[in-house]
Amino acid sequence: MSPVTHFLTGWVLANTAGVDRRGRVLVTLACVAPDVDGLGIIPELLTRNSEHPLLWFTLYHHSLHTLAFGVVVAALACALSKEHRWKIGFLTLVSFHLHLLEDMVGSRGPDGYQWPIPYLAPFSSSLQLSWSGEWGLNAWPNIAITVVLLSITLWLAWRHGYSPLEMISPRVDTGFIDTLHRRFGAP
User: Fold this and answer.
1) Helices 67-80 and 21-30, interaxial angle, to 10°?
2) Beta-carbon neighbour count of residue 176 at 10 Å?
3) What is the distance between the alpha carbons of residues 163 and 173, in angstroms, rounded to a whole number?
4) Tens digit of each residue's pLDDT (9 = 90 or more) over 8-35
5) Contact criterion met (CB below 8 Å) for 34 and 67
6) Between 116 and which of 17, 22, 130, 183 could a Cys-Cys bridge form, CB atoms 3.0 to 4.6 Å apart?
């Protein structure tokens, strides 16, 4: 699924758990964290016509989609949390695994390739997670899931008085929430 879908999934999870702003940011980012390895597409695209192309995306995408990296993300979230450390750690681990689940059901490439998730790497290659019914990255179910998550996100923003924009600027977030409340009334 797209990074936008992963982001919205993490944000919705964080906002149904009753955690503070820092906790919401950590849980949300945990759902996007496995795709940090996707940044390898930049050097790959920049060097694709060179004598020695860097195939960092082709070779390493999904290399961080592992239990070990999920535990590192959860431990880091615990360390960065100000309150409810164990709750935040657990929620980041759940958020991370929601990303893996979303990738398993809806991230097949246009060529039909299913990137298996090397769940136990780097310690073992014995468990490669995949699903034979995986739909394409641009398939209608992914679009529908994203639309539903966006709708829930807007409803939660209207109801709770903060949106994902709080991660960028509290002032912009306040303006957005004020606009929602003017348009749809206060909760």
Assistant:
1) 170
2) 18
3) 6
4) 999 999 999 889 999 999 999 999 999 9
5) no
6) 130
